[in-house]
Amino acid sequence: MNSLHEAVELAIRILRTDIPDKNEVAVKILEVATKTQAVSQHIDSYLDELPAKIKRARFDLKMSQAQFAKYIGVSQALVGQWERGEVRPSFKTVKLLAKVLS
Predict the structure, then answer these.
(1) What is the count of structural domains for the chain?
(2) Which of 5, 33, 34, 76 is a Cys-bridge partner for 66, taking CB atoms 3.0 to 4.6 Å apart?
(3) CA gap 96, 58 in Å, rounded
(4) CATH number of the domain that 55 lies in?
């Protein structure tokens, strides 16, 4: 489901059918869609803050971009792009950063 709006439309269509337990099914669809939207917003918020977090972590480690890049196994240019918010790290890299920086 792409949006909460689509979930509402689907729930309404289900409520208009003869499906057994249609009320429970419609409620579950709306619950899942609402939770999915909340998680998506949380992830977006985290990713928006990631450039500053990466830069702060590097400063806390007292490393240059080149040193930090070598430490985590990427190029200096990529670290700079992350810090400027030009490129977002992959999910795999975010997991690595979390592990390395914790």
Answers:
(1) 1
(2) 76
(3) 14
(4) 1.10.260.40
Mean pLDDT across the chain: 88
Q: What is the pLDDT of residues 18-57, one digit of tens each?
A: 988 989 998 988 888 888 888 888 888 888 888 998 999 8
47: Cβ contacts below 8 Å, ≥ 6 apart: 88
Q: What is the 3-state secondary structure (H, E, C) of the chain?
A: CCCHHHHHHHHHHHHCCCCCCHHHHHHHHHHHHHHHHHHHHHHHHHHHHHHHHHHHHHHHCCCCHHHHHHHHCCCHHHHHHHHHCCCCCCHHHHHHHHHHHC
Instruction: Look at the block and give the residue holding tokens 């950063």.
Output: 97
